[in-house]
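Batch job 17 of 40 flagged for manual review because the log was empty.
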Amino acid sequence: MDTWEEIALRLAERAGINTPRHELIEVAGKAVLLSQRFDREGNT
């Protein structure tokens, strides 16, 4: 259950590039990529 974006994030990590925290989950039989926002702080 890979998505191209998730694969790109894994490759970037292996290359030593900082990436946002992310997780690939399955929702209603479909792959969904969750990633933490890194461009905002707090509740905004």
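Reviewer: the log was empty due to a logging misconfiguration, but the result itself is present. The chain has a mean pLDDT of 90. Unflagging and moving on to job 18.
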